[in-house]
Amino acid sequence: MNTSVRLYSLGYADIKTYLFAFLFVLGNLILPQLCHLLPIGGPMLLPIYFFTLIAAYKYGIHVGILTAVLSPVINSLVFSMPPLAVLPVILVKSVLLAVAAAYAAKYFKGISILALVCAVLVYQIIGTAIEWLIVKDFFAAVQDFRIGVPGMLIQVIGGYFVLKALAKY
């Protein structure tokens, strides 16, 4: 089911871009801290990506990229999560998600489970391949597919409901 919504494409010259990015980065700071209270909560629930998906899908590539880059960097600097050793991979996947989500929103022209599944699978598949090239360890590269499926499902299903709730605005 495709829910028609008003999607925005804010540019870097628009002050709203930075306001929305700030709010989504804040969400990406709080949600991982809550998830890390659970054993393997971060790798299993993939919380650092949730608000990046929402930001890029609803407000476009510029808000998405700002959220994608600032969220893991600030989390790493303030909370040491993700650790510096994995920060490059997280940044790559985060930016891929922002691009995939913004493109999916533009292509599907509304909110749909299929669009969100496509965005999540694109960033995960391409991100896993890039991670494999970087870390040179296939087992480590496929970690999101081994234990992060609940997080991907939360991104798709939770993202759908959050985007539907934001559709009014």
Helices and strands in order, then pairings?
Blueprint: H1 15-35, H2 41-45, H3 50-59, H4 61-79, H5 87-108, H6 113-135, H7 138-141, H8 143-147, H9 149-166
Structure description:
The model has no long low-confidence stretch (mean pLDDT 95). This protein has helices spanning 15-35, 41-45, 50-59, 61-79, 87-108, 113-135, 138-141, 143-147, 149-166. It is globular, with a radius of gyration of 15 Å. It is an all-alpha fold and 169 residues long. The two termini are 20 Å apart. The chain has one domain (15-166): Arp2/3 complex 21 kDa subunit ARPC3 (Orthogonal Bundle), CATH 1.10.1760. The chain contains 9 helices and no strands. Helix 3 packs parallel to helix 5 and helix 4 (61-79) runs antiparallel to helix 5 (87-108). The longest helix is centred in the last third of the chain and has 23 residues, at 113-135. 75% of the residues lie in helices and 0% in strands.
